[in-house]
Specification:
Elements lengths: L2 H9 L5 E2 H10 L2 H4 L6 H11 L3 E5 L14 E4 L1 H16 L7 H7 L6 H31 L7 H26 L5
Antiparallel strand pairs: 1-3, 2-3
Length: about 180
C-alpha cells in the first residue's frame, strides 16, 4: 500500500470526509513536501479503497449538490480500513528504504562535466535548496495559521534537515571543486 493510501486512511480515522476535504487536509499538512503526494491520485485512491472494502461510501456524489452542482461523495473508514491502516502504519515505522534521488545519479557522473558547468550546476542546486527551505517555512506558517496538528511539523522539520544536509555537502563541494579536489 502506498504512503498516499495510508495518509488517506489516517485522515479518515476521525470522521467521514469527501475527497476535497481529504485533499485540503493533506495540503494543509504540507504532504506534498514530505510524502510525494500526487493530489490528483487521491480521488482514484478513494474509489479504489471503497471497492476493496477499506472505505465505505456514506453519501453518494451522484446527482445535484448545493447550488445545482455535482454532489460530493463522502467516505468513511471501515473496520478493515482501520486494521489496514494500523498494520501499514507499524510497517512504515520499521521499514527503511533508500531515498531515491536523481541527484545521486548526477553525482556518479560529475566527472563528465567541465569544471565550469559542474560549478554552475552545484550553485544552481544550492539556490534551489535554499528556495526549498523558504517553501517549508511558508508551509509551516500556513499550517499554524489553520491550526493543523503540531506533530505534522515534524515531517517538515525532517525534510528541511535533509535539505540542510545536502546544502552543507554542496557548499563544501564547491570549495573542493574550485581547488580541483573533486573530480
Amino acid at each position: 500500500m502506498s504512503s498516499t493510501r495510508v495518509l488517506i486512511l489516517g485522515v479518515l480515522l476521525d470522521r467521514p470526509l469527501h475527497g476535497y476535504e481529504v485533499r485540503k487536509t493533506l495540503e494543509l499538512w504540507g504532504a506534498q513536501h514530505w510524502a510525494n503526494v500526487a493530489f490528483g491520485s487521491i480521488y482514484h485512491a478513494l474509489g479504489k479503497m471503497a471497492q476493496e472494502g477499506l472505505l465505505e461510501v456514506i453519501e453518494s456524489g451522484e446527482g445535484a449538490g448545493p447550488g445545482g452542482g455535482r454532489g460530493r461523495t463522502v467516505y468513511a473508514i471501515t473496520p478493515d480500513g482501520r486494521a489496514e491502516f494500523d498494520r501499514r502504519l507499524r510497517e512504515h515505522w520499521s521499514e527503511i528504504m533508500p531515498i531515491v534521488d536523481p541527484f545521486q545519479v548526477a553525482l556518479t557522473f560529475m566527472d563528465r562535466l567541465p569544471k565550469a558547468d559542474l560549478l554552475s550546476a552545484v550553485r544552481e542546486r544550492t539556490e534551489r535548496l535554499r528556495a526549498g527551505f523558504a517553501s517549508f517555512e511558508r508551509a509551516r506558517d500556513a499550517k499554524r495559521a489553520a491550526d493543523a496538528p503540531r506533530h505534522v511539523d515534524e515531517c517538515l522539520v525532517l525534510s528541511a534537515a535533509e535539505y540542510r544536509a545536502q546544502l552543507e555537502w554542496l557548499e563544501r563541494a564547491i570549495a573542493r571543486i574550485e581547488r580541483d579536489d573533486i573530480p
